[in-house]
Amino acid sequence: MRPKQNILIEDKSAERIAFISRTTNFAEDVLEDAECEDVLVDIEWSAEPKVLVNGWQCNYDVEESIEIFMDKYDLDAMYSENARISYTRLYDEVVNTYMETLHYRMKNYASKSYATRREYYLGILFDGRAFLLEGEEDHVISPGIPQCFSAHTHPSNMPVPSRQDLRVITRLLIDRGVGHVIETVGPSLAIYRVRPLTLEDWEKMKNVQSIENPLEALQVLSKLKALRTRYF
Question: What does pTM read for this prediction?
């Protein structure tokens, strides 16, 4: 029996995805703490990225909220009236960054899955480290550690999540990860957050895991206002 392929990945695109994910959760906390209608952000990309933050229609001091949460997410953040973009754009930016980079690597592994039926799993941690795991035929086990984004391959040409997939995706989202992608030799499917999850969202996502028909479960997920399903 040949050894499985388990790889630790140091990748600039994974680090960028993690940074945007941390910024997203940071903005969510500022939004709640300062009771804002919206939080505006701008990321200045450099060797040491900086996050510019502004608040719109806030009941409390945004600058104080920035100071409270920036260290929690290991961010260099500051108040700036030059920040003009809603933080809600960050969710799509995470997925777009994946699509433009690591998606192509996972497409290659999707071809391997189609040929061998072995699945592969990519996990990106909040600190920017990433790992790739080789699984068994028709399944791969995800480690139970918080991840900001993940993807796995299916040995098919349609990205329909299994019940186990739904459990993994639900756990990632509840742990404040941004999203997950199912890769096949055909289309890819991204399931990701587009706003903070509410208690009602959590309950509905947990209930989805008990639905036996995968297509029905996917349809229920796609109707949640906090989530978006996107094929590419």
Answer: 0.94
